[in-house]
Design goal:
By secondary structure, the protein is α/β, with parallel strands linked by helices. Among the domains are: 145 residues, FAD/NAD(P)-binding domain (3-Layer(bba) Sandwich), CATH 3.50.50; 149 residues, FAD/NAD(P)-binding domain, CATH 3.50.50.100. 31% of the residues lie in helices and 24% in strands.
Length: 459
């Protein structure tokens, strides 16, 4: 027993911060390596973020796209999972400091803590326009979307009813396009026969994008086809549009020299991301250079300059050593980076040298709605039903556990046939209630007055 304990403690200790795609795939790749691995995450599950918007729009439940980290790594006898939060590191002493337990020593450190929402200096918009990065974000979006229809059914004031049936998505990247398309399908297909006093097909869905086209990183042809598909779903796509204020259930935006305001009770943010706080921690402790979004500039082997034992992977890393722009912050990149770093560390232990990281880009995809998607792949460009089928099977393939794949496949098949959304539950969040003015009951002695309507611009 003592010999076993001595052997375990003498193994190189690899600490991985973050159980997303990068961190998880690094941990999985260490399964048979002569190392001791500690994976730290503040959540006890791995989340398949590319399908998070389907939770937000009622197609899937959270458990369909999440897997407990301990279950995934249960057969990895050299790996320990800790539910905790890293608050600091000491690169000279090779220590990681945690919120709820003593510090850990490491021989190699892998940081894969990803990104969060970026409001470009307007963090006060966060409560009014939630982003989509966590399960809680998705559930809050789902609550707001479906509560808007419920509130509209009870509202007798036509102007207020229209505000409740107006949905604004800020940001025309893949997440914004997917959200706008899904909301349009909800209004025009999924719930159109479920209400009696409102016509949900009269809902307005607006997609704002600051650039001159949606899906800016995609080829112009794919952007044009995506916009055409959205417009077929009655989404009002507004490009060259900059949001200047979000407050009081309204959005103020600028188009050229014109400034307009529209009332909308449901405003969703998909306009940008910024690095997690670990980026600043690494910069402060190691002198690592950060880009404008706070991502860490890494070396060709994904390590930090002057710290060959610290690696940054996934969305937190700015890898600018391949092509004319950094690698995109997508799941396949994070997976390959995690596998590469695990292999590099293992080879180093064996005294071998590993070539710098190279990523083979198979392309990018975005779904707009049922049978509608665009796929820009290295062997061709596709749109419509074919692109949608490619998108479906690519996402099913990358789901972690078999039972998740089976559940999602069955759920998608059923929704395809019925055009339904079975996970349309509205969950309460007392701190973020949808703000709807209740009808005022005037005192008997006071004459009834009518508040003048707020002047807005219809778009």
């Amino acid at each position: 027993m003592n010999n076993t304990q001595t052997k375990q403690t003498s193994l190189p200790h690899i600490v991985i911060i973050g159980g997303g795609f990068g961190g998880l795939y690094a941990a999985k790749s260490f399964k048979d390596a002569p190392v001791k691995v500690t994976l730290i995450d503040k959540r006890n599950f791995h989340l398949f973020q590319p399908l998070l918007y389907q939770v937000a729009t009622g197609t899937l439940s959270p458990a369909d796209i999440a897997s407990p980290l301990r279950v995934i790594l249960s057969k990895h006898k050299n790996t320990q999972v800790l539910l905790d939060k890293v608050v600091d590191i000491d690169p000279e002493a090779k220590k990681v400091f945690l919120k709820d337990r003593d510090e850990l020593d490491y021989d190699a450190l892998i940081v894969a803590t990803g990104v969060s929402h970026h409001y470009f200096g307007n963090d006060q918009w966060q409560d009014d326009a939630p982003g989509l990065k966590t399960v809680e974000d998705a559930l809050e979006m789902r609550r707001r979307i479906f509560m808007a229809f419920e509130a509209a059914e009870k509202e007798t004031d036509l102007e207020k009813r229209q505000a409740l049936l107006t949905f604004v998505v800020v940001g025309g990247g893949p997440t914004g396009v997917e959200l706008a398309g899904a909301i349009a399908e909800i209004a025009h297909q999924s719930v159109k026969n479920d209400f009696r006093d409102i016509d949900t097909t009269q809902a307005k869905i607006l997609l704002f994008e600051g650039m001159d086209r949606i899906l800016p990183p995609y080829p112009e042809e794919s952007s044009a086809k995506a916009q055409e598909a959205l417009e077929q779903l009655n989404v009002d796509v507004q490009t060259k549009t900059l949001v200047t204020n979000i407050a009081d259930n309204s959005v103020t935006f600028r188009q050229g020299d014109d400034t307009k305001t529209i009332n909308a009770h449901t405003i969703l943010w998909a306009a940008g991301v910024k690095a997690s706080f670990m980026g600043k921690v690494l910069a402060d402790r190691t002198g690592a250079e950060l880009d404008r979004a706070g991502r860490v500039m890494v070396e060709p082997d994904l390590s930090l300059k002057n710290y060959s034992d610290i690696f940054v992977i996934g969305d937190l890393a700015n890898f600018a050593h391949q092509g004319d722009r950094p690698l995109p912050g997508v799941a396949p990149v994070a997976m390959k980076e995690g596998e590469y770093v695990a292999n590099l560390i293992t080879k180093r232990i064996e005294g071998k040298i590993v070539e710098p990281f190279k990523y083979k880009d198979f392309g990018s995809m975005a779904v707009i709605g049922q049978n509608k998607a665009v796929a820009n792949l290295n062997f061709g460009r596709f749109s419509g039903f074919i692109a949608w089928i490619i998108w479906v099977f690519a996402h099913i393939y990358y789901l972690i556990e078999f039972d998740n794949k089976l559940i999602v496949m069955i759920q998608w098949a059923w929704n395809y046939i019925t055009l339904g959304r079975g996970a349309r539950l509205i969950t309460e969040n007392p701190s973020l209630q949808l703000e709807i003015e209740p009808p005022q009951k005037p005192e008997k002695s006071a004459p009834e007055t009518k508040e003048p309507a707020k002047e807005t611009v219809s778009v």
